[in-house]
Every structure is written in structure tokens, then in C-alpha cells.
Specification:
2 copies of one chain form a homodimer. Chain A has about 350 residues and is α/β, with parallel strands linked by helices. Chain A has 10 helices and 15 strands. In chain A, the strands form 3 sheets. In chain A, strands 3, 4, 5, 6, 7, 14 and 15 form a 7-stranded mixed sheet that branches. In chain A, strands 10-9-8-11-12-13 form a 6-stranded parallel sheet, sandwiched between helices. A two-stranded antiparallel sheet of chain A has the order 1-2. In chain A, helix 7 links the parallel strand 11 and strand 12. The relative contact order of chain A is 0.15. Chains A and B meet through helix 8 and strand 13 of A and helix 8 and strand 13 of B.
Chain lengths: ~350, ~350
């Protein structure tokens, strides 16, 4: 096989906002050589652009997330077709979700929290990485397991119009909660209240978030699902109800710049409120992905979960698509399809 | 009865460090009038000086802790003898632990998390408020329940030579953990390692806490029991192991000044490490106080828990005793005995 293996490499560590010059295009040889036990080789079909990948472009740190080596392909969640396997549960021809890299063909390591999982029959590659993919599953486990959300409680979601946030907010409604979303424009807020059935929305760009939260959540916030961090996390902490739970899903306010967001300042409120703040990763729940997919599919088919997708096509569009996550121009789950098989369901 | 009821009132809101002039001595009439349902009237016998009382002297805030009204007696945990009762489970003559006030005779409200609890037979007033009182019980529930401490794990305790911290550290040893303490002097560190059997101690006044933690906890911190907050909390977060638990017990670094301590800055470490940070109050566990007392008594009698007490005598010494919590001069659980019956055990 003399096919070219297209790649997008991390050319340099981004400083401040991401720039086109942080990435380098390369046409490499096909990955060759044998696979180590547990590894699989895949043909990548579609990639999810997830904000947290921006963290992976930072230098190695003590922050427990991976650091993409300079000159190597960008690491990214992908839907892919297996072309070779040294993994016991995975065969050639299987369709998988995995932590892959921005190239046509990639080797994915096995084992651990990031092991590849099979895309269920009947769900396309794009649905597997998008509509029922990591973002909505993150929302599912974060809200119900980490947040221990209960019917009748008040849920606040930051980044609520985003891919993960909008699912968390709508699962809250399915579960009988009062749900308030925080988002970055009037149109995003309108979509949440008018299309998604959310009880209230706060535009953080034009409203005082802390004050609006106290008005919209008179009994306090029982669960805060946080995708944003920084000042919005602080505003929520100041409105948490006793025994409240803060689900730390992401901190997008601090990803695309060089400063670490200020942390919450009044820890004594957490002490006296017996408030829990808990970080988590979707991968912690890899054993329960099928449960999440089944639930999300059922809620989607009954019209209870609205979903917006921003599908881009073409390998060449990967860096620019990813960058649009941070300038506010992207609406919905951002996918980049790089192979025509993306809608196949078996 | 024409006995005088001595009182210490909150004269003004402390600004910066506590001052003698923040308190006012008064000789008042005995509290009279009927009791509301659930209330009891007590003869206070001894008070616990707890650092968190400093927070209660602040103006009312959204921080979920109580604010002592200006001109009213200082609120404080006390061991007391019941002289009148409108509470179903409590009779005249009973000995109780409760959230009382700095005066000879006080009315304590019933119900809720702060309801009075009986001091078990055979345990003196002083033991009830000190050796087996709120501080060690806080350590017990915080470490084992909130922190879910497990044998073989690494525990770090800040404020480790203090009343609560030293108990938490020693319970960690009883449970088979590797225990590192952080304290504010060489002699406190020596006491921890030489007398209490703690595996290592860090003097935060002369050592780089973050660096020392990484040396002493090569596999990371599984449980961080935090009494201090601020920069020490940050140093611990930077050394937490994945799935670690941070027990938010107190934030003494920020009590006795007007600034709110900076919060932890790298929340993404909590996300990627699936780390839990949880506030709590001992009162959450009021139903299990007997269990804690029984356990603490057994470990104390078998020599597994060292205990240091700083017992002061005399009602007039209340404000000055309390202030010594914040200047580093106090060693051990700080009690003020105001009645000769303090050693009675029935």
C-alpha cells in the first residue's frame, strides 16, 4: 500500500490564543510495523473537536492531563474503522470510538480508561462520535452520577448552549429538575428556553450572573454543572444550597490563554454548606457507555433532547474547525468528517 | 434567684486581627421567661475555643455560617448542665454538648444540626467538650466518612498539630495509612513524628510545602485533610493522586484577617484527576456521635491517640484565651472551664 497518510502535527506550543501557525500539515508514510498487545490500527473516519484538547497542547505539567509531543499528530477523540488489531475484544472491520490522532491512519493504545470502545450496531460513525458520543455521555454521567441529580432540585449549567452543556440541561428537564442555563449570547439563551424547554437562561455577556442566579434560584442551586470555571464558578458557589454538588466538567474560560483562572475564593462556604466539588472524566464510566447510549437514544427519539451539530468535511479543515471552538462562532457539537464512510452504521 | 449572669458580648466586628476591644464584659440578670418547644436552659460549665468561631464574628454573609449579633454573647460550643428543659429527650440535670453562648446561663435552641446531645455517662464535662468533643469527632467523621480513607493510602493533614488535625493524623495511623503532617514549627513537627507516630512532618514556616509533599508522597496524596486553606491547599492540590479526596474542614489561614484567601487556581487538575473536594460539618453526623465517642475512647485507652489540652480556668479569661488560637501560642485543644463541676462524670 503506497497510500499517503495525511497528518496535522503540533508545530509549536500555542501562546495565548490558538493560531494557524501552531499546526503543520504533513504527508507521511502509512504507519507500519507490528502492533503491541492491546493496540489497534484504525482508519480514522471522523473527529470530535473537544475544547479540552486545547489543554493537551500545553507543555507537560502536573495537571494530570496528557501533553501532545511537539512534532506529533494532534491527539483527538475519533470514530474509526479497525484495520488491524492486537486487542482481544476488537476485530478487523469493527467500528470504534477511541482517543486517536489527527491522521488518516493511526495506532491506538489499548487498556486503561482510554481504551477504545465499540460503536453499537445501527449507530453511524458520526452519531457515535457526536449525537451519542463523548460529550453527551459526559453530560449523562456527570449530571446523574457525579452530581447525583434528583427530581425537584434546581440545576444550573454553564456553557449551557454547548455540546455537553445542552445535553446536561435537557437531561435535567427529563429528570424533573428546574434548570437554569448560562450561555454567551441572547440567541443561545433563546434556543435554550424556547427550543430545549429550559426554565431560564442567563446571558453572561450582558447580565450579572451572580445576581441573576440569586433571582432565578431562590432556594439555592442544588447541582451546578460547570463547563466554564473562573468567575462563573465563583458566582455559582455564592448561590449554592447546602449539600449542593458542583460537577467540574471543564474550565473553558481558562483554556485558550496563558493564565490559570482564579479559583473560587470562599472555601468556607463549601465547608459550612457541606458542598461537594467533584472533577471527573467520561472515561471513568467506560463500562457503562452502552447504558448511556441506550438512554440518550431513547430520549432523543422521543424528542426530549435537542441536538445541534456543526459538521465540517475534509481533513484540511481540522485546525481551523478546532479554533472556531474558542471564538464563539461554533454552534453545536463540532465534528470533522475525513472519510466518506462516516454515515455507515455497520 | 438573684445570681449574676456573667456575659462576654461581641462589642464590635473585628477588623483584621482580633483585639481585646472587640469584646465587652457585662453582668446581666439571669435569663428568665418560659422556654419555647425544643429549647433548654443550661448552666455552662466549659467552653471549647474553636477557630471557626472567628468567622461567626463577621457580619452576616452568604457564606452559610452564622453571624453573632452585635451586643449579644459570643456563640460557642459548650459542655453544660441542664437547669430547665422544653426538649423531649433532655431532662433537668442532664449533661449536654451544645452550641451555647459565653455566659453563665444560656438558652439553647433545639432541633436541627445544632441540637444539643447528651454527654455519655462516665465522661466528664471537660472530656465531653475536649478529648472526645467536637474537634476529635470532626476528625473522625471527616477522615473516615468524607475522606473515605483506606488502609495503605497516603494521608496529608494540614494544621496537623492542632486539636482536630492531630486526631485526624493519628486515626490515619490507626487505619494503616502513611501519614504526613503540616504544622507551623519544628517542635510541633517533632511532636507529630516522635510522640504521635506520624510518618513525616513539614514545617510550613521554614520549608517549601509543595516540594516537600512531592518528596514525601511519591505516589501522590490520596486524602488531604485541610484545616488551613490558601497556599497550603494549593500545594496539596498540586500533589493529589488521581481519585484523591480533599476534606475541607477549615480554612484557618483566612479567618483572622479581612481578606478571603485565594482559592485553588488549577481546577483542571481536579477534573483530570477525578478529584473530590468536600466541605462538611461535624453536626451532619450528630446521629453517630456515640459511635465516634466509643471509638475515640477505645483508641485513647489503648494509647493510639495522643491528646494535648490547653485548659484555662475562669470566665474572665474567655476572650484572651480565644485570641491565643491565632497567634500560634496555643498548643492543644483549648478549653475554658467556668464552673467547678467541670470534672463531674454524671
Amino acid at each position: 500500500v503506497s497510500e499517503v497518510n495525511r497528518q496535522w502535527l503540533l508545530k509549536r506550543r500555542p501562546e495565548g490564543n490558538l493560531s494557524e501557525a501552531d499546526f503543520e500539515y504533513k504527508e507521511a508514510d502509512m504507519p507500519s510495523g507490528g502492533l503491541k498487545a492491546g493496540e489497534i490500527k484504525v482508519r480514522n473516519v471522523g473527529f470530535l473537536c473537544a475544547p479540552t484538547m486545547r489543554n493537551w497542547m500545553d507543555p507537560p505539567s502536573k495537571n494530570l492531563y496528557p501533553s501532545i509531543p511537539l512534532g506529533q499528530p494532534i491527539m483527538a477523540p475519533a470514530a474509526a474503522r479497525v484495520v488491524a488489531s492486537a486487542s482481544e475484544g476488537i476485530a478487523v472491520g469493527d467500528r470504534v470510538l477511541g482517543l486517536s490522532t489527527w491522521q488518516d491512519y493511526a495506532v491506538i493504545p489499548g487498556g486503561g480508561m482510554r481504551r477504545p470502545t465499540l460503536i453499537p450496531e445501527g449507530i453511524s460513525f458520526l452519531e457515535g462520535i457526536g449525537r451519542y458520543g463523548l460529550n453527551p455521555m459526559t453530560a449523562y454521567f456527570g449530571l446523574l452520577d457525579v452530581g447525583a441529580a434528583q427530581s425537584g432540585e434546581t440545576l444550573v449549567v454553564s456553557g449551557a448552549a454547548g455540546s455537553t452543556g445542552s445535553t446536561a440541561a435537557q437531561i435535567g428537564k427529563v429528570k424533573g429538575m428546574t434548570v437554569i442555563g448560562i450561555a454567551g449570547s441572547k440567541s443561545k439563551c433563546d434556543w435554550l428556553t424556547e427550543q430545549c424547554g429550559i426554565d431560564g437562561a442567563i446571558d453572561y455577556k450582558s447580565e450579572n450572573v451572580e445576581k441573576r442566579l440569586s433571582e432565578l434560584c431562590p432556594k439555592g442551586i442544588n447541582v451546578f454543572y460547570d463547563n466554564v470555571g473562573g468567575e462563573i464558578l465563583q458566582a455559582a458557589i455564592n448561590n449554592m444550597a447546602p449539600r449542593g454538588r458542583i460537577v467540574l466538567c471543564g474550565q473553558i474560560s481558562s483554556y485558550d490563554n496563558d493564565e490559570s483562572a482564579e479559583g473560587p475564593r470562599n472555601m468556607m462556604r463549601l465547608v459550612y454548606g457541606s458542598i461537594r466539588m467533584q472533577g471527573f472524566l467520561c472515561g471513568n464510566y467506560a463500562d457503562r457507555f452502552d447504558e448511556a447510549t441506550t438512554q440518550l437514544k431513547s430520549w432523543t427519539e422521543s424528542g426530549q433532547i435537542n441536538y445541534r451539530e456543526d459538521l465540517r468535511v475534509g481533513f484540511e479543515n481540522l485546525p481551523n474547525s478546532f479554533r472556531s471552538l474558542f471564538d464563539g462562532s461554533n454552534i453545536g457539537t463540532l465534528l470533522v468528517q475525513i472519510d466518506d464512510s462516516a454515515t455507515e452504521t455497520t
